Amino acid sequence: xxxxxxxxxxxxxxxxxxxxxxxxxxxxxxxxxxxxxxxxxxxxxxxxxxxxxxxxxxxxxxxxxxxxxxxxxxxxxxxxxxxxxxxxxxxxxxxxxxxxxxxxxxxxxxxxxxxxxxxxxxxxxxxxxxxxxxxxxxxxxxx
Amino acid sequence: xxxxxxxxxxxxxxxxxxxxxxxxxxxxxxxxxxxxxxxxxxxxxxxxxxxxxxxxxxxxxxxxxxxxxxxxxxxxxxxxxxxxxxxxxxxxxxxxxxxxxxxxxxxxxxxxxxxxxxxxxxxxxxxxxxxxxxxxxxxxxxxxxxxxxxxxxxxxxxxxxxxxxxxxxxxxxxxxxxxxxxxxxxxxxxxxxxxxxxxxxxxxxxxxxxxxxxxxxxxxxxxxxxxxxxxxxxxxxxxxxxxxxxxxxxxxxxxxxxxxxxxxxxxxxxxxxxxxxxxxxxxxxxxxxxxxxxxxxxx
Lengths: 143, 299
Prior knowledge:
Chain B: This is OB-fold protein. Chain A: Belongs to the enoyl-CoA hydratase/isomerase family. By secondary structure, chain A is α+β, with helices and mostly antiparallel strands. Chain A is built from three helices and five strands, in the order βαααββββ. Chain A has a five-stranded antiparallel β-sheet, covered by helices on one side. In chain B, 18% of the residues lie in helices and 37% in strands. In chain B, α1 packs antiparallel against α4. Chains A and B meet through α1, α3 and β2 of A and α2 and β2 of B.
């Protein structure tokens, strides 16, 4: 895995689409990995009793997947500074989450990517992710 | 808002101010230090193959909150809890998160043990939303490694009073390819009449073929919604589910020249007569169904 350099990222750069099948296994394993034991993320009957149609992705996972989507593209040495997510419709088990993204801003070496995570019901997450690339001088990420 | 509700509003706002005045309240230190097994488990579940975290001994930034999650054990109280209880008690029992914003100051290193500190920032409302009337509650959490703030989160939820669903109306229209445009129109407050796409003849009820020229081409016009009673019956018995007897079923002759069947409302049944002037009115029968009904035209 290599990290993109400044010349390879510019305003308007488009991230490759990433689609993730939201299997019950993914919903449950991410809920547990994020230490979130709220029943709506692992108990189908519990979720239905609360008016949801199935178990759904928890917010900590949404944050993690948005982060992963951006770092999958820019590479391991970039540093994520901020992730702002506006939460939309639930991402239910059995659905598919598709991420798209575009670089929209560059301010003194800090890039902002706009990310959309769509499911069949609409936008699950609309996010702005800020990151820095490793500085070319020393090969480490700028502070 | 009623007087009682405005009292509730004052109380909620007072409590919000009190909780905000508490400032940042620190919780207990995380049960486990930042550690490789939890990082590996997290990366695995997320499908995140970034090798840098484990190679460099740092946690993925988005994991910040994970270290202080309560797990299955009892949850620690924060300044937010009292606000949530008060909103629940006031009937704002629904909850949906609307914003989650993370800021990362530096990566968390394996071996560090974090503490979460919560600050209640704002209660805004009441606001009318698609889910129902509600309040937006916002708080921030800062994660510290020792005294060093490493990450922050702004979290906002909407606490709403779930909309009461109307009892489903027991009589449902048959909606199919021929009639869907009509019911779509009713939802938008339009009385649509099918028109032959070739000879232009208007027809109701809608169907697949023009009775005059046999054309299958069709579109529709929007009727003015004015008509007169062509004929009618007053139904007294037997009882009909969803309807109070007696009620009037009329054949209404529209200005446009076609006839349509409907109930006459907002008028004593004995006042209905042939030739009576009517206008259409739309009545929401339950959360899905709207029906066109007929009322006496204003003089």
